[in-house]
Amino acid sequence: MKDIKVLILGGGDSTRYWPLGDKLFMTYLGRPLLYYRLNQLYKNGFKNIYLIAGSHNLDKYKLFKNKFPEFSFNIIIQKDKRGMAGAVLSAEDSIKNSPLLIIKPSDLFEDSLFSHFLKSAKTEDIILTGFTSQNYFPGGYLTVKDGYLQHIVEKPDKDNLPSSMTRLVFDYFKDSSLFLNYLKKARSTKDDLYEVALENMAKDKHKLYVLNYSGFWGQLQYPWNALNISSYYLSKIKNYKGQNVQIAKGAVLKGNVYLEDGVKILENSKIIGPTYIGKNTLIGNNVIIRDSMIGDNCIIGFTTEITRSLIGNNNWFHTNYIGDSIMSDNIALGAGAVIANFRLDESEIYSSVGHQKLNTNKIKLGAAIGENTRIGVNSSIMPGIKIGKNCVIGSGLVISRDINDYNSCFLKPDLQIQENKNASKTKSRENLKTALKF
Amino acid sequence: MKDIKVLILGGGDSTRYWPLGDKLFMTYLGRPLLYYRLNQLYKNGFKNIYLIAGSHNLDKYKLFKNKFPEFSFNIIIQKDKRGMAGAVLSAEDSIKNSPLLIIKPSDLFEDSLFSHFLKSAKTEDIILTGFTSQNYFPGGYLTVKDGYLQHIVEKPDKDNLPSSMTRLVFDYFKDSSLFLNYLKKARSTKDDLYEVALENMAKDKHKLYVLNYSGFWGQLQYPWNALNISSYYLSKIKNYKGQNVQIAKGAVLKGNVYLEDGVKILENSKIIGPTYIGKNTLIGNNVIIRDSMIGDNCIIGFTTEITRSLIGNNNWFHTNYIGDSIMSDNIALGAGAVIANFRLDESEIYSSVGHQKLNTNKIKLGAAIGENTRIGVNSSIMPGIKIGKNCVIGSGLVISRDINDYNSCFLKPDLQIQENKNASKTKSRENLKTALKF
Amino acid sequence: MKDIKVLILGGGDSTRYWPLGDKLFMTYLGRPLLYYRLNQLYKNGFKNIYLIAGSHNLDKYKLFKNKFPEFSFNIIIQKDKRGMAGAVLSAEDSIKNSPLLIIKPSDLFEDSLFSHFLKSAKTEDIILTGFTSQNYFPGGYLTVKDGYLQHIVEKPDKDNLPSSMTRLVFDYFKDSSLFLNYLKKARSTKDDLYEVALENMAKDKHKLYVLNYSGFWGQLQYPWNALNISSYYLSKIKNYKGQNVQIAKGAVLKGNVYLEDGVKILENSKIIGPTYIGKNTLIGNNVIIRDSMIGDNCIIGFTTEITRSLIGNNNWFHTNYIGDSIMSDNIALGAGAVIANFRLDESEIYSSVGHQKLNTNKIKLGAAIGENTRIGVNSSIMPGIKIGKNCVIGSGLVISRDINDYNSCFLKPDLQIQENKNASKTKSRENLKTALKF
Q1: Which of A210, B63, B179, C415 sits 20 to 30 Å CA-CA off A186?
Q2: For position A424, what pLDDT does the model report?
Q3: Is the whole model's pTM more than 0.95, yes or no?
Q4: Superfamily of domain C239-409
């Protein structure tokens, strides 16, 4: 195990994850996702780690290394741009002639996958990993016979799936050079050289054992996937109160609630677990938060409701409803702004990614909002909408289309202003007051 | 008394009651209005009951009969379509040669009317009923001399009323056949054959005694009339808690509050009586409800306020204000939607019925909303508006006209989207936070 | 001291203070501003008071005299319309041949100015008053040498200030007739005869001592200045509960809170001091008020938040956010209306006065609203906006320009109404309910 080199394919650019920035550095329970991936490898005994970086995220990896010196790993720049195959070939010098485990950094799985893998690695030289699912998944599909790979099909047609076994990138090669050779010889007009190499290996009668994994698999491609990851980590928390936590009289905590240092919860607010609140975040009066992760230094102001959401750092809310949403850092919402999470026709929510309109398979989904964005008072954001970073959304708007980074959005109201001839009709309000009951 | 046949004119089609469905089956305190009318007849000893049905509501009456077997009554289909006269004539075979009491099912009155009637019936062979009122009423008016009818005028001109005595349909004929004969001979070009028959009887020197009723009279023609009926029944309730009622700490109940089985009231909510909450309805956090009837299985979500309203079953609210409104079943309102109940010019609220614009004589009146309708987040419904069943009202709208059944309503916002050049000006929020006081 | 005549230049018309009415009669802690000015003079021994009135406010001064008989002062109508000079000359007969102190009624200063003045008056025959400030001030500037006036410049160019000493109108002349003579001889094409007279006195080698005042100076020109005055008076209050004050269980008071007679605070509301609540005002459920002055007979309804605002009498709010705003009397806001107080670009807030766009130097500023105005449900008023008296602002609007007195403002929504074909797709909500957690 100690001699297995782990190659993390971290050169992707999170395009499909827009507007949320780099998915590996989004924080869960106060730590970036990458922390958890490395920690899991360490905990399971894999410390010989090579991380592929792109030029766009190299600096972030370096910063991470400085911040978390407990992990030692080598950063390799992906020079060969040809997708996963290019990533592996970019690392050739470091990983050749060695046992090799290849993973994608944004695929979450449980420790049980390691223990099953280690058992299989005693007898198998090549191991791929499959996951049986009835839901369509826009990735690879495996057909298997007697435990070994027959065919691998990348992104098959939704109506013509070769099997119900999708592919999780957790690939082991006892002899990395064998795979490297296949990679070099692979040819394709599509972005599937890696899969072509595997297919060729199977065709050449190499035995590619397919490990059937059945635990939690958190795939992180689209912004809304982050909610699944958040739920997964929330399911692990316990009740906890850090230093200098203040909870006012009349505030109610229920279920597992994890409060970091300096959290302040004001009167008549209710936190329903599992919920995590980051450092120095203030929960104002009459707030309700359920099943959510809130970052550091947020102000969750008067009468805000947050449900099943993942909220970054330094966000500022104020009499808002936020349902099933994902927010980056440094976002502010004006009073009365609503992030709607449920269509009026109660059907599944679609979201545009590139030129595609994807079914999120969710009937409850709010918005994904990039960093530094401001939303005006009484504005309404429709379910499944994505708003870029550094945007300004005016007041009183209904946003039902995605808004790109660095855009502002206002409505020129066609107001009809005229003389108010009825002013003198205004009546005494004393009768009205008498009718009030409290 | 036992030999008096009661004829209930239940063939009307509730057209003026749109969008609320059939007024006899709207529930108050968990039971349909028809239940109360039959129960009152039974309680006062009248069990020989004939109910006129139309083809449009025949099935509903049959269902009712099955559901409430404690009442036995005969259903007669109205074959003669000529209004009230046609209704009575359709029942001729069942009611001829008998003492006969004719009532309308949607006119509510108190038991005292029965006791006064029974006293008068000892000496009088024909009894009509009048109600003295200073307010205009779009129905019949009576002129009376020495206690007996002189003339009956159907829907007189508002500015030329023959008297201040309006007519409540509670008509007794010791010999029904006499009245049936007059009905058959009556001729008119308008829908007033019944009244013409009465006028002709008076002309022929029959003595039609006019009983002067002065108790509560609940007329149910227009949707907003249901609020009066609701108030009447609410005035009768006592404090009550059914089985499995849960009331969280910090919730406040004041006045007469009737909670059916399974009601759950969460923290910091306040219920001000007289208020009735139906079975298994959930009152969320920080909700306020006053002077209202709420049906079964509703979710009254976070920070909703409901005032003087009649709310059906299976409704779902969420941070809404609902004032002086009537809602059918299975309605949902998005967060921030407001049902306004008070004009900005504080004048009386008008409502369109057919081609007429009627003065509701109310300065506080919200909306009437039909079943299965959805209203989007931050939408505003103006006072006196009616929204049909199965409608979808989009988000951020202002609805100031009635919306027909099965309509959707959206606003195409003319958004001005442009590059946000000010993004870099965003300042640190640390100073702002320091200024916060809690 | 007893022989000093005090001349209050009260003939101004508060034009720049629109839409808030007459600034001298706006109430703070239950009393009009003029009360405080007179009270301060009395307390410091100045009881020989002459008040210049214009024809537009003469009646108000007379009413004030009747209401506060504890102050005796003479009202003089300003016949000479030439600004401050005309005001003084209009009073010539009353003030000639006497020690004279001239002040403006809307300039607030502390008692320390009187004590410093009295000390200086022992040796100096003419005293002006300066205030050193780094901020630009649209008034007079003084250059001083050895304690005496060299030059006075009225409204210098912002980029070419003659000094950092601005002029506070607190002018003493031991011999009023000397100054009256200079006033009569002064000539100018601008509205600065008063300052020209002072400049000429200095030129003629009269010694005009300049007292350097450094305490609180509340200048009251524009509506937003009233917030500074309000803060000043709030800083003086102590905890106090008047007669018949009711505070419900679960309500929280923090800091110095002054509650006048008859105030009622309902459940789960929070008042954060310094805050003043006027007579018989009702604070509804779940309200939060901080750092504010609220007038008499207001209804602050369910879930309203008021921050750093000055609110007049008889106002009616209801689920509103009101930040850094100034409101006259008899104003009503519909549910969900928001008075925004912070620009989305977080920059300083400008406000139009006449043809000028002024920088208020505030990054948090709401609206100024005149008396008798109504604002509809879910409307949004942008930062720094002014709305006149007797206006009607419709529902669901975004108001980003000033609205003149007696104007109504509505939006004709371009609704798209069509048949709702999806109605039948409405699903059972039972699954949704099961997923709810509370």
Answers
A1: A210
A2: 43
A3: no
A4: Hexapeptide repeat proteins (2.160.10.10)
C422: which chain B residues are within 8 Å (Cβ-Cβ)?
Answer: 392, 408
- Right CATH for B229-409 from 1.10.10.10, 2.170.190.11, 1.10.10.60, 2.160.10.10: 2.160.10.10
Instruction: Report yes or no: B429 at the A interface, CB cutoff 8 Å.
Output: yes
Residue A423 reports pLDDT greater than 60: no
CB pairs under 8 A between A and C: 135
* Partner residue facing C380 (CB), from A290, A347, A378: A378
Q: Subunits with at least 3 CB pairs below 8 A relative to chain B? A: A, C
Q: What is the pLDDT of residues B52-109, one digit of tens each?
A: 999 999 999 999 999 999 999 999 999 999 999 999 999 999 999 999 999 999 999 9
| CATH architecture group of domain A5-221 | Alpha-Beta Complex (3.90)
Name the closest residue on chain B to residue A342, using Cα atoms: B334
- Residues B209-238: tens digit of each pLDDT: 999 999 999 999 999 999 999 999 999 999
Q: Which pLDDT value is given to residue B139?
A: 86
CA–CA separation, A396 and C381 (whole Å): 10
User: A314, A382, A398: which to substitute to probe chain B, counting the most B Cβ within 10 Å?
Assistant: A398
The 3-class SS string of chain A reads CCCCEEEECCCCCCHHHCCCCCHHHCEECCEEHHHHHHHHHHHCCCCCEEEEECCCCHHHHHHHHHHCCCCCCEEEECCCCCHHHHHHHHCHHHHCCCCEEEECCCEEECCHHHHHHHHHHCCCCEEEEEEECCCCCCCEEEEEECCEEEEEEECCCCCCCCCCEEEEEEEEECCHHHHHHHHHHCCCCCCCHHHHHHHHHHHCCCCCEEEEECCCEEECCCCCHHHHHHHHHHCCCCCEECCCCEECCCCEEECCEEECCCCEECCCCEEECCEEECCCCEECCCCEEECCEECCCCEECCCCEEECCEECCCCEECCCEEECCEECCCCEECCCCEECCECCCCCCCEEEECCEEEECCCCECCCEECCCCEECCCCEECCCCEECCCCEECCCCEECCCECCCEEEEECCCEEEEECCCHHHCCCCHHHHHHCCC
Instruction: Tell me which chain B residues have a C-beta less than 8 angstroms from the C-beta of A342.
Output: 334
Q: Scanning every residue of chain A, which has its alpha carbon at the shortest distance from the alpha carbon of B252?
A: A438
Tell me what pLDDT residue A369 has.
98
Q: Which helix (H) or strand (E) holds B247?
A: strand B246-247
pLDDT digits (tens, 9 = 90+) for C168-203: 999 999 999 999 999 999 999 988 999 999 999 999
Q: Which pair of structure tokens corresponds to residue B107?
A: 């006119």
Chain B: residue nearest C376 by CA?
A: B344
Please state the domain extents for chain A: 5-221, 229-409
Both tokens assigned to C296: 């008499």
Of B346, B411, B414, the CB nearest to A412: B414
